[in-house]
């Protein structure tokens, strides 16, 4: 029974994500005159049809492609995505000054964010240091 509930929760979660995708990217309940007053039921049916179409696409992709092992994904992240994000950061850093009209305000905002991050890291390190240690006998 536990496995059935877990399995049902997985499918419901996927369908809720498909409903959100239909609302955010496919126009939600609008389409084919469904947004007009008096056609609320038709709007609901349009939303469900769009959600089922997205769900079918998600299930097609999920059942067709092989699973990606976590060690392969981590290697891809460290070897490709992290250097790519650092290059992106450098490009934005050097292109921001000539193209951002109010660069001083943006620079102050970034400095405040960096200061907040530094203080958060110091506080977090102090908090972790105060946690009780496990005693090994």
The sequence of SSEs as H and E is HHHH
Question: Radius of gyration in whole Å, from Cα?
Answer: 24 Å
How helix-rich are the residues, as a percent range?
Answer: over 70%
Which band does the percent of strand residues land in? under 5%
Average residue-wise pLDDT: 82
Structural account:
This protein has 137 residues and is mostly helical. It has four helices and no strands. The protein folds into two domains: 2-64, no CATH class; 70-129. Helices cover 77% and strands 0% of the residues. Helix 1 (2-25) packs across helix 2 (40-64). It is extended. The model has no long low-confidence stretch (mean pLDDT 82).
Essential attributes:
137 residues, mainly alpha, 2 domains, 4 helices, 77% helix
Give me the secondary-structure topology:
Blueprint (H helix, E strand, L loop, with lengths): L1 H24 L14 H25 L5 H30 L3 H27 L8
Helix pairs in contact: 1-2
Brief rundown of the structure:
One of its GO terms (biological process) is aerobic respiration. The chain crosses the membrane at residues 7-29, 41-61, 73-96, 108-129. With 137 residues, the protein is mainly α.
